[in-house]
Amino acid sequence: MLDEVSCDSCSNRVLVEKYSPEHTSIQWIDPDSSACRVFAQQRDCADGSPGKVQRTCSMLRATIDRLADAGTIPISSRSYPTPGRIH
Ligand SMILES: [Zn+2]
């Protein structure tokens, strides 16, 4: 089940699914990096190589962690999509 979460910092909206406390899948609704200023900043620092940029926003992660702690984001009953792979 995907939950819609908006970043505390930039209000960017993403879809989140948690498989375990450590494994969180994040889907960006708006792929444009302008959606998140942290993401946009990281892109600017990456010297124009879009494929290599990891889309992370620490504020977004903090938001997700907070919601997960509060039980707002339930752990998905689906199995992790890549079982056996070490991340
Ligand atoms: Zn953000």
Tag the structure with descriptive keywords.
single chain, 87 residues, alpha+beta, three-stranded antiparallel sheet, 2 helices, 3 strands, elongated, binds zinc ion
Explain how this protein is built:
- Helices cover 24% and strands 17% of the residues.
- By secondary structure, the protein is an alpha+beta fold.
- It has one domain (3-69).
- The protein has a three-stranded antiparallel beta sheet with strand order 1-2-3, with helices on one face.
- The mean pLDDT is 77.
- Residues 7, 9-10, 12, 36, 38, 57, 59-60 line the site of zinc ion.
- Zinc ion binds next to helix 2.
Write the layout of secondary structure elements.
Blueprint: E1 3-6, E2 13-18, E3 24-28, H1 37-45, H2 58-69
Antiparallel strand pairs: 1-2, 2-3
The chain binds zinc ion.
Task: Summarize the entry for a quick read.
The protein has two helices and three strands; from the N terminus they run E-E-E-H-H. The protein has helices at residues 37-45, 58-69; strands at residues 3-6, 13-18, 24-28.
Which class of secondary structure composition applies to the elements?
alpha+beta
Number of helical runs?
2
Low-confidence stretches: none
Subunit arrangement of the protein: single chain
Helix content: 10-25%
Beta-sheet strand percentage? 15-25%
Tally of structural domains: 1
Mean pLDDT: 77
Unique ligands = zinc ion
Shape: elongated
N/C terminus separation: 22 Å
The total strand number stands at 3
Radius of gyration over C-alpha positions, nearest whole angstrom: 14 Å
In this structure, how is the largest beta sheet organized?
3 strands, antiparallel
| Topology pattern, helix = H, strand = E | EEEHH
Strand order of the largest sheet: 1-2-3
Organism: Gordonia sesuvii
Protein name: Ferredoxin
